[in-house]
Write a structure and sequence with these properties.
It contains two helices and twelve strands, in the order ββββββββββββαα. It is mainly beta.
Length: about 250
Amino acid sequence: MSKCRPTPEQCADTMPVKVNRIFDSCSDRDCFSNVRIQIGGELPGNINVVKSRCVRVTDICMNIEPVPFNRGFYSIDLTYTFRVELLAYERSCSSPVLLTGTAYANKNVILYGGESNTKTFFSNGEKLGETDACCETINLPTAAVQVVEPIALEARIASVCVAEDTPPVRSVIMTLGLFSVVELFRPVTILVPTYEYTIPTKECHSDTESPCAVFDKIRFPAEEFTPGSLPCAAKEESCGCTEGFDASENTTS
């Protein structure tokens, strides 16, 4: 079986390749509120103001389980680990002290991941599929989570009960915004069209021009020297800006 290129003089053959097929995916914007920052103890009593300096995702723990009575669907439990850097102040205008801590947040999604009762063994020692006590092969799909660095929406000091029957302790509480994409995929074999190898037409060369000659070719960034104005659509919401506005129609005598 072969398929032709758009050009009639050349045709493409098919070749089997092993790829990871995405069966289902979702994107989300999560707002995690009341996230306690663990800084290794109680917040010092002289600290009255905290500000976020940096927040980043350092790890995501994923647990996948089949959804009962809904074949092919899987529940994915996600635990985000955040590394937080805080600027702590005794007073608003005093010199800050840098504090570092860790925070955790959880979420759950359900996606379709297909079904497979096969076990696959690789020469490097990896394998796909496990067998339980009832000789039933369980071949779970693989989950992948993509995130951008979180946004610190709020940072405040509050008294929090860490455990039952213990007095509350002063802690830093944050609200974090996070954009994420979750995917479920499996390895599959598909046929793809293949073409003859081609030689690149672009020639390799080194730039021998002087640094000033290279700089002269860069476009002048005029927009960086011009303060931006509020778009008219936004002005309409805030100050009643309309196109074709005539000042003479709104003058008073």
